[in-house]
Amino acid sequence: MKDSESLSVYLARLFDILNHMKSYGEELSRERIVHKLLFSLPKSYDPICSVIEHSKDLEILEVQEVVASLKSFELRLDRHTENSTERAFASLNIEEKNSKSGSFSGDQKSQKNWKTSEGNKMACKHCDKLHYGKCWFEGKPKCHGCGKFGHMIRECNGNKNAHKVNYANQVEETGTLFYMCNAATDVKKNHSWYIDSGCSNHMTGNEGLLVDIQRNLNSKVKMGTGEVVPVAGKGTLVIKTKLGKKHIQEVMLVPGLEENLLSVGQMMEHGYYLVFGGNMVNVYDDQSLGNLIVRVQMTNNRCFPLTMMPASELALRASVSHCLQTWHKRLGHLNERSLKLLENQGMVHGLPHLEQVSVVCEGCMLGKQHRDSFPLESTWRASHPLELVHTDICGPMKTDSISGNKYFLLFTDDCTRMSWVYFIRNKSSALECFRKFKAMTELQSGYKIKGLRSDRGGEFLSSEFNSFCAEVGIQRQLTVAYSPQQNGVAERKNRTVVEMAKSMLHEKSIPYEFWAEAINTAVYLLKRCPTKSLNKVTPFEAYTGRKPGIAHLKIFGSPCHVLIPSALRHKLEENSHKCILIGYGLCEKGYRIFDPSSRKVILSRDVHFDEDGLWKRENEQKGEITVSMPAENQNCEPSLDLDTPLQMDAGTTVQDEPSQNLDASTQMGENNILQEERISGSSQAIDHTPKKWRSVNEIMAQCNICIVEPESFEDANLDESWRNAMKAELEMIEKNDTWTLVDRPFGKPIIGVKWVYKTKLNLDGSVQKNKARLVAKGYSQKPGIDYNETFAPVARLDTIRTLIALAAQKEWNLYQLDVKSAFLNGVLKEEVYVEQPQGFVKDNEEIRVYKLNKALYGLKQAPRAWYDEIDSYFNRAGFKKSPSEATLYVKTSDTSGILIVSLYVDDIVYTGSCGKLLEEFKNDMMKHYEMTDLGLLYHFLGMGVVQTNKHTFLHQKKYAMKVIEKFGLKDCKSVVSPLVASERLCKEDGSEAANENEYRQIVGSLLYLTATRPDIMFASSLLARFMHNPTRKHMGTAKRVLRYIQGTLDFGIEFIKGKSATLIGYCDSDWAGSEDDRRSTSGYAFTLGSGMFSWASIKQNTVALSTAEAEYVSAAEATSQAKWLRFVLEDFGEEQVEGTPILCDNTSAIAMAKNPVFHQKTRHISRKFHFIREAIQAKEIELIYCKTEDQIADILTKALSKDRFVYLRDLLGVKSAKGLEGSVDV
């Protein structure tokens, strides 16, 4: 560290060097950095260095502690320095003790040493000083009190201050500084610095020229006029030269000083050498006088002004300004307002004056840009009712209403702020609600709806909704994407309604299932409440023209006593029963009352309320809410069926009748009253009669389904079983030596971890075990830094089915192993650190982290690391990896036979011809990894496997039941075939748009079911062509397939044991089967003698000009699959010596495949399909003709009649578990 260098500058330079060393791969230890820092300090820091070395343990001492101690010592040194008297020359120091006559002690020394070439000179007779020319004080009076010129003793301030000795001494003891300057007026530039030998310190009045300003100074400056000015601070001036940046330190900031002064004495103290002569001064930076910093010419008034501007000899620039943008970035992109507050209020030290620069910060734009503000009020308001209607859907609610609804749809009139609410189960019902709303409001008000403003939700953008608005002439106003503020009226109304409903529910502790009743009541009340949008009228009055009455209002949820009609009770029975108020009648003058004892909702006007009471639910009956309609001519109002859906007849209108005691509502809500004859007469009415009785078996079967998995560690920690699961997971991690607890590294990213909880079930729905998994938050990893490769292969379903089919043919048993925490075994190549898991942080080591030796679940590279680990194990164990399937390993022995292993992440399926070899493999695997022996293969990848002595049965019954229940078709009527033979599907079929999200979910579920159900392969592939903008017809077809699944839940593929393993294929096509682009559909299926194990239904990429061409392309695709299957079977030890027969029902296609001559009918066919000819010539395949009625692949290309479909389904090997020999239970 240089003597002229401040500690802050030196530390910045030191850490910059350390960072460069680290970037080059060399990193110093903490102890070595501390030693280097202490040894490199100058002699003035010896006291604090000695204290640190003797009182601290340097091996564990942090660098930050040393820096803090050094900075504290530096501040102490600065305080001592600033309180002492500054002296550049002895002549510039004011010492009252040594100068009683007011003259300077330094003048006497300078007089003795003042020599010129002419010899000694005599002092001036006026001022007793040596100088050239006429004396400045000639002709001026001299004070006999202080010895100064310009005033008499009666005007002397020194005489007046003689009576204030204490004050005068205090001023002199502060170490006052002053400067002597020639008052020149011809050079006045802000960027000029005057080199002054009469100035004891560098000084400036411009704060913007300095950096690192220190404010804690007590020094003062005595000006040439005698005025004492306090010093505002001390900073550093930075000059940029050819030799680099130069720092001029300890520059005093003196407010009011017009010129900038450079002290000659202070520059010499800091190591600069100044040579005066030849009407100039040269400034050098060392004693050799070889490195010229600047040359300053003397002006006419004998001054040396140094202009901090680039010159011809050297590039010299003073760093005199601090950009606001620089400090904005230094402070982590702090906003401008806070920066100015720090500067103006003096809240921190070291912040200079900041100059405003208009620059766009790219970092802020990328990280902090937000939406532009929206106007507080709309610039336009509707002048007539229904001129503009605002609408929005709110939901889904977590708890279904008592009618099973999840959403509510709110309409608000822009002119009157009148609101109407509808309750719906699905968003797709929005159009039906709007139709009813339009018919009702237009009839009541006499106005027409002209505009509709909504967001861009799919329910409002469907083609059906747009067509309806276009037909009736309604103008649509849609918000910009992700800008709900543009639909502010509806959004704020939704918020107001929900908040009011929540307040009413919590006030009386009403269950959440009554949220729809609370919403309904909130809308009813808001129409009778003031709003800022209207001037002294309520929305009800603005819409209807009459004031509403509110005398009938009671507190929502209040207990009440409802009169029981005399016809419904005996004379000695109670006259009333206790109920709960849940709203007001929509079309009746009465209250909506809920009876907890009978779980019924009734309407009554004979009610007495206890508004201070609460609902006590201890005697409430459990069950569904039902309603019984009272007999005719009874005083009690008809009760409401809360399970009645929203749908009403198109001609139904609800009129707002005048009210005397109770205002009727125009609101169409969840609880609309439907007349009995209207319900019975509607063809679309849905029977929602609650079920009163359920079988014990059904109830017991659902007990295992009601499983709640914890969502957080706090929830899981409350259950002993989940705590044990987490402990087991950590024990497995420690046992595998997955991590090591280390100190938190510097400059390395630390990845967080979280607990994930999953309840594993058996096929019958019973609980298998609770599994807690510690997962790394891999989404925070960066490619190239935290990981490189992530890809890991998995087994194809075709491979798994091929293995199962081969094992059945060979009468081998299939076994399964499960690797416990498989990813924890993968060795990491990268350096990865993770936090300690929640709930298991080591005591007194909270700041330490784990360094991963092996992979954790959630890491990007975890699958790849596990695959590399298990692959290396198989190679060491003598297995040979299949070149056709990366997850298939085969081990052969001349004496023991063959062992086949298929890997799917952590699930291992293995089989073979030798039981001893299988047992050795299992034991060896358990020695190397923590394994669970699952025995015979029973459940794999969602597929159930049933192995008996005569056959192996593959099914997905559990998943099929879940799909049927998910889409509400559990008790639907089944059909015999998935598709109607005479029905064709196309993109534009004229029907309305369907729910695209639901449609995609259905098709995705059906595609997964095709893993064991080739009978629905064509139907699933056909439906997958209409994923975008599906129609109601497409949805109906998809649900028909689900109805077919409902009737064939226990169907699967049967593989008969003991058959010869001969590969046979079938291929077929449906020429121009697509109605949209007239492309054909290819289908193929392969078997080893019993059930099919490989199949596909594919839409061809080109348009075939003939049936022969379509069949030819289909045969080429089947040939490609056949060659791959031959490779896999060869790896299994079942090499197909003869060519694989592929049965085709088109003789022209067979002739084209066997004829190598290109002619007019085949020259346009893509060359990739002609490789079938090479396969035939190589005798790898053999195309054989079969009759159309025997073509099994026909079921994969088109919709068939019921009889033919069932016939070909049996040939595929798809059968019911009940029809198998031995009656297999799945």
From TrEMBL:
Give every Integrase catalytic domain span: 381-547
Arranged from A to Z, the UniProt key words for this protein are: Aspartyl protease, ATP-binding, DNA integration, DNA recombination, DNA-directed DNA polymerase, Endonuclease, Hydrolase, Magnesium, Metal-binding, Multifunctional enzyme, Nuclease, Nucleotide-binding, Nucleotidyltransferase, Protease, RNA-directed DNA polymerase, Transferase, Viral release from host cell, Virion maturation, Zinc, Zinc-finger
Nuclease as a keyword? yes
A Gene Ontology molecular function term for this protein is:
DNA-directed DNA polymerase activity
Pfam families membership: gag_pre-integrs (PF13976), Pol_BBD (PF22936), Retrotran_gag_2 (PF14223), rve (PF00665), RVT_2 (PF07727), SH3_retrovirus (PF25597)
Q: Which PANTHER family match?
A: TRANSPOSASE, PUTATIVE-RELATED (PTHR42648), TRANSPOSON TY4-P GAG-POL POLYPROTEIN (PTHR42648:SF11)
Domain called CCHC-type: residue spans? 142-156
Q: Which InterPro entries match?
A: DNA/RNA_pol_sf, GAG-pre-integrase_dom, Integrase_cat-core, PolX-like_BBD, Retrotran_Ty1/copia-like, RNaseH-like_sf, RNaseH_sf, RVT_2
Spell out the protein name for this chain.
Answer: BURP domain-containing protein
Protein's job: The aspartyl protease (PR) mediates the proteolytic cleavages of the Gag and Gag-Pol polyproteins after assembly of the VLP.
